[in-house]
Amino acid sequence: MKKKQRLYFILFVLASLGCAVGLSLYALRDNLSFFYSPKEVAAYLAVEDPRVAAGRRFRLGGLVKTGTVEKTGETVRFTVTDGAAERQVQYRGIVPDLFREGQGVVAMGRLNEAGVFVAEELLAKHDENYMPPEVAKALQQAHEEGVKSMQAYEAAADAKGDAP
Amino acid sequence: MIAELGHFALTLALVLSLVQAVVPLLGAQRGRAAWMQVGRQAAWSLLGLCTIALLALIHAYALSDFSVRNVAENSHTMKPLLYKITGTWGNHEGSMLLWIWMLGLWGVLVAQATKLLPAAFQARVIAVQGMIAAGFLMFLLFTSNPFLRLDPAPAEGLGLNPVLQDLALALHPPLLYMGYVGFSVAFCFAIAALLEKKIDRRWATILRPWVLAAWAFLTGGIALGSIWAYYELGWGGFWFWDPVENAALMPWLAGTALLHSVAVLEKRDTLKNWTIFLAILTFSLSLLGTFLVRSGVLTSVHAFAVDPARGVFILVLLALATGGALFLYALRAPYIRGAKPFTPFSRETVLLLNNIFLFSAMATVFMGTLYPLFMSALQLGAVSVGTPYYMATLAPMLAPFALLMGAAPAIVWRAGNPHVTMRRLMLPALVTLALCLFLVLFAVPQKPLLWLALFAGGWILVTLGQDLARKTGGFKSFRYLPLSYYGMQLAHAGFALVIVGAATATQMTTEKILVMQTGDRISVAGYDIRLDGQHTGTGWNYNVDRVAFDIMPQDGGRAFRMMPEKRWYPVAARMTSEAALHLAGLDILYIVLGDNDGNSRNRWVVRIYHHPLIGFLFLGAGMIALGGLVSLGTRRARKPAEGVV
User: Is residue B301 part of a domain?
Assistant: First the structure.
């Protein structure tokens, strides 16, 4: 009797855990949102990658480019940059208090047919020194690649021997 | 000088905690009473030393001693004194010191409370407390020492984050930590029981109030955090499924399961291994919560510690504590015997099912929280998991969970009678269905999530009312039931209200965004709202634009005024919005100011929310925490296993 009870118990635990895991995986599949930098978006758009197809939800992050924030009524338009590429964003609503030109921002939303990122949500965190890790990484990558290409250019210039 | 005193006290505390971790344990193994005695004295001294350290840091904060690096980085002379002091635990180092101080406090309380138990058991519990304290003291001293000096001392501090200057936020970490750290008691009890290969009802009777207290604190901490987010962040939401919120929710779910299984163990002497497992799990999740918040591995509003060494250190601590405990569990669990049998139709089964649902919910949250972490560790891309995931996974679990919750009191211990139960539940079932049908047809919008929540909440409340009526002889004699019964019913009713409030506030909400200037009118959810004008003023350390709205309820109620603010903190160079909230019955009308429209200083972007019945949510959360505290007051919680109801 006791053994049998334990068996039922274990079977039940496994079954409900299985259900939970199944439901979770199913829900995860539809509800993940990926993070891309403007450069990645541009690269994916160039090859028509479905990951950034119009209407597909993802998060876009980078710095708010200085001099691009433009407000008309309750709509805000600005450009997000990671140093290597840019993307236009528009958002209807109240921007977070920490939203400012030159600061990091993460926007959740979709591209429209014109290639403008229509944000449903803007995230700016509650610490002025805080940079979203994804944004920091994207900026870092863009920077490193810039440095590399610069070095390659200089190396090529040296090889040619046309130093001043 | 005082900072050095604190530093010195911490170093001494580390040495002492090592003594506390080793000597009583050896004493218990070898049966030496004097060695076992060391534990209690060590626990008291540890608390004393941690208190000195904490006071030293508070002193440095109160006097703005910027020669202490931690103070210079996180405080500012322009803060009000109250927030200077609460700022002590508003940062990584200080909050970890608070964590350890609380561990010391719980250690002493446990040492006092376990005097009734055999000396060897008590010694083992205290020794395990000592191990945890040693681990965290090393963490504090080696990776996040709050007493490091800064030379030369800066004239002014860097920390003046105005969003953090808030009373709810000042109380939120201490409550949360009381909960996290409180579960260490359950953990130590579990380890001691495994070491002795013995666990019985007495064990559960002594442990239960500790679990209750920790759980009530954790509930309060989570609720305060949620309330703070609601009024301060200005997004009109109370729960964002942010990884850090989840980090507190996971131990709460496991702790709730533990609370119920300890009760079963106390009353029926069964579910022994499961209870031990839950005790280990709950504290491990508390450690994981600390790790997630403090390591900065997650993108989150709280991710302010980004030193990888800290994350690795806590991860090692977590691995040692959890891995060690589970290893011991695997070795010793087969020796834990003597669990009383029960039939499939009994209250034991219902409570076990409740545990399994809570466990599954915890596993679901765990997966959603850590999945992005795995993805990024495996270089598969940066992803985030949001509200839709949690709704899709947790909502289906709610219905059976609530059904069981309502049905449990109608099923007796050990061997229930399905016919009796059915007969008793018939009436509440009909009442709930009629109520829901009425609401669905006439009162609420057609939204499945809303129906689900109304049904779940309604069923719990109706069955609860029936049970109360039956046990009090038709609401006549309230005196003969133990306090723990009322505590339980209070918490269950609170849970029902939380579900209903969360559902109505999210599913029936009205939201308007528009540009307004003086004289503009708008009507939202039965209120006529008119922008009356704006004033400019100054506060303690900020300048403020205050915009006044005159509100006239359309049903002819009294007019009132709401004044959301836009504050500018010149020293911090920061802008914050203070939302205006108006509580009308259980509904909340919520107005936030956005920026001035680019062209004119008198045109404002305004966001208006109406959250129906959201009062239920906060009231319910309070009732859950209060229910835990009320249960604590019961006589049974103090005296070991006597008359069981």
Answer: no
Count of domains forming chain B: 2
Q: How many structural domains are present in chain A?
A: 2
pLDDT per residue as tens, chain A (164 positions): 466 777 887 888 788 778 777 877 777 777 777 888 898 899 998 888 888 888 888 888 888 888 898 888 788 899 999 888 899 999 988 887 778 888 888 888 999 988 899 998 887 654 444 556 667 777 777 777 777 777 777 777 666 554 43
Q: If you count them, how many residues does chain B have?
A: 645
Does residue A28 sit in the same domain as residue A54?
no
User: Is residue A73 within 8 angstroms of chain B, CB to CB?
Assistant: yes
Task: Give the B window 514-553 contacts with A, CB below 8 Å.
Answer: 514-515
Q: Which of B389, B398, B414 to mutate to test the interface with A (most CBs of A within 10 A)?
A: B389
What range defines the domain where residue A42 resides?
35-160
pLDDT, residue B433, reads: 92
Q: Is residue B49 part of a domain?
A: yes
Residues A12 and A84 in one domain: no
Question: A-chain residues within 8 Å CB-CB of B388?
Answer: 27, 30-31
B386: distance to nearest CA of chain A, Å? 7
Q: pLDDT digit string (tens) for B195-214? A: 999 898 989 999 999 999 99
Q: Is B379 left (phi over 0), alpha (psi -120 to 50) or beta?
A: left
- Could you list the residue range(s) of the whole structural domain that residue B562 is in? 510-611
| A40 and A17 belong to one structural domain | no
What are the helix (H) ranges across B439-543?
448-471, 483-507
End-to-end CA distance of chain A: 93
Residue B570 main-chain phi, psi, to 5 deg: -65, -40
* Position B640 pLDDT exceeds 70: no
Peptide bond into B152 cis (omega under 30): yes
Q: For residue A97, what is the domain's CATH number? A: 2.40.50.140
Q: Compute the distance between CA of residue B543 and CA of residue B546 in angstroms, rounded to an integer.
A: 10
- DSSP class of residue B599 equals T
Mutation choice for A interface testing from B384, B513, B515 by most A CBs within 10 A: B384
Of B165, B190, B210, the domain-final residue: B165
Are the C-beta atoms of residues A41 and A49 closer than 8 Å to each other? no
Is B346 an interface residue toward A (CB < 8 Å)?
A: no
- Residues in B touching A28 (Cβ below 8 Å): 367-368, 371, 385, 389
* Domain presence at residue B566: yes
CATH code for position B590: 2.60.98
Nearest to A13 among B356, B383, B577 (CB): B356
Average pLDDT estimate for B551-556: 90
- Same domain for A15 and A87, yes or no, is no
In a domain, B254, yes or no: no
Residue contact B303–A13, C-beta within 8 A: no
Residue A13: list chain B partners with CB under 8 A. 356
pTM (2 d.p.) = 0.89
Beta strand B565-569 pairing with B574-578: antiparallel
Same domain flag for A1 and A75: no
Does A2 share its domain with A49?
A: no
Q: Which residue spans within B381-476 are E strands per DSSP?
A: 383-385
A71 and B607 in contact by Cβ < 8 A? no
Mutate to test the interface with B, among A9, A10, A14, A24 (most CBs of B within 10 A): A24
B window 177-216, beta carbon within 8 A of A:
none
B386 contact A CB<8A: yes
A2 and A81 in one domain?
no
Give the chain B residue whose CA is nearest to the CA of A37. B382
Q: Does B392 touch chain A (CB under 8 A)?
A: yes
CA–CA separation, B582 and B567 (whole Å): 20
Q: In terms of domains, do A19 and A63 share one?
A: no
Please name the residues in contact with B235: beta carbons below 8 A apart, sequence gap of 6 or more.
B229
Which amino acid, B256?
T
Chain B residues touching residue A8 (CB < 8 angstroms): 344
pLDDT at B301 over 60: no
